[in-house]
Amino acid sequence: MSNIDPRHLARLLAIQVLYEADTSGHDAMEIVQAYSNMSVPSDGARSASYMIMQSFYDSRVEWGDEDFLPLDDQEFLPSPETYPLLLSLVRGVNEKSPQLDEIIVEYAPEYPLEQLAVIDRNVLRIALYELFFSRHVPEKVAINEAVRLAKLYGSDASSSFINGVLGMVVDNFDKIKEELKIP
To answer: DSSP secondary structure string, 36-96?
Structure first.
């Protein structure tokens, strides 16, 4: 079993799901279903989840309190809480994407939405969903996790870009909620 926080792992998997959905045209919820149906091989081979994580892992990223991600030759298994969190994130981003994209367009006006890097666009969507629609995620956590995802998956400038956009959003939080009629 992994010692990575289930919420963090759900975000890592969510960015992969949303990236695949954006680039392939596959339905994001079907991709989540495929992830949840990955079986653990009985022959002791690495699990599919392990291979997904390994294929995207970059050891140059600092992980804060976690000394390392447990990616070695042992089987890597997400905890049982990971998939419901992943499903919730992906479903939420899918359902709220028009509102999330409206925020991105307003607070990153120099970058047309369709020209933003797919990773950057989806990292912003996840963070904005958590900021505005997920009541259990503190503001600092949503921003820190977005920056971490941008460092892991994005370009060299992604984390600064993400941090800047989210900083402007937080500065205008109440205004955005009012404009978009978010409860």
So the answer is: HTPPPPTTSPPPHHHHHHHHH--TTS--TT-S----SSS-----TTHHHHHHHHHHHHHHH
pTM reported for the whole predicted model? 0.81
Please give the domain boundaries of the chain with CATH numbers for all domains.
6-179 (1.10.940.10)
Per-residue pLDDT of the chain (183 residues; tens, 9 = 90+): 456 788 988 898 899 899 999 999 999 988 887 766 655 444 444 444 444 554 444 444 454 544 444 444 333 456 778 888 888 999 999 999 999 999 999 999 999 999 999 999 999 999 999 999 998 899 999 999 999 999 999 999 999 999 999 999 999 999 999 999 988
- CA gap 72, 95 in Å, rounded: 36
